[in-house]
Amino acid sequence: MFKEATLYSPVINNEHGRVSVIFAKDHPGYQDRPYQEHRARIAELALRHRKGEPAPDIPYTEAEHETWHTVSTELSAKHRVHACREFIEASELLDLRHERLPQLSDVSARVYPLTGFTFGPAAGLVAQRDFYGSLADRRFQATQYIRHPSFPRFSPEPDMIHEVVGHGTHLSSNRWATLYELLGKTVRRLESDEAVSLVSRVFWFTIEYGLVKEDGRTKVCGASLLSSCGEMDYFLGADINSFDAAAMGRQGYLVEKYQPVLFRAESFNHFEDFLSEFLTSIDDDSELVAA
């Protein structure tokens, strides 16, 4: 399994304008030169992108289209069993096709009429305040590469499958879109890094890895869970706790393997209310920040 350092493969833009992506030795693309060069070209297009313009079209390979087809088809079947009702309804609105990997600009064009959110390209890791802050403008910064075909069922890097299947579906729902925007506005008004770090942890255990009760069953609503075939098989084996911001703030999380601890809301209404109350009440002097 990947190590934590592999979460983002750093993008380097040297003084000569040459863009490269640095892969850790345990990354499945470490010895795959064509994949590395392809990732570098995608990163370069993102770095050249100007805000407000459509995301650049990526010349995806047939292997990448096949990875998308395989993973998205399997995920769709798992969603019918495990995804919460709000996600299923949003996925019907977004109506992603399994045959070919979509362009980010096309996803953005589909989401915008639904909720006013747009997608812009990210070359790799986006600074925390920049990433969250852009949500206040209903803009989501997304990567455009796809996971290595040799390791399709889980990716510690947030690739197009994660961005589109997970967050793209979320942002097709007005209820979720409102929460994302509120999160962005919250980060923009916070001054302390400690407070932003707490918000990030709560984001992780709600938006990314949250669960809800629905008709007496545990259902998945987090974007990371919903975009990982492996996590969808594993989540019921995790230690599942009730929603609690203080506990989320204390809980460590893993990026290189499946989450051993998850949190569950009593309903999607509770999910909304919990996150809205936390985001509107948190400030730099909050007791939760100091805890």
TrEMBL record:
Its EC number is 1.14.16.1. Gene3D superfamilies: Aromatic amino acid hydroxylase. Residues 1-291 form the Biopterin-dependent aromatic amino acid hydroxylase family profile domain. Fe cation binds at H162, H167, E208. It comes from the Bacteria. PROSITE patterns: BH4_AAA_HYDROXYL_2. Its cofactor is Fe(2+). This is Phenylalanine-4-hydroxylase. It comes from Streptomyces formicae.
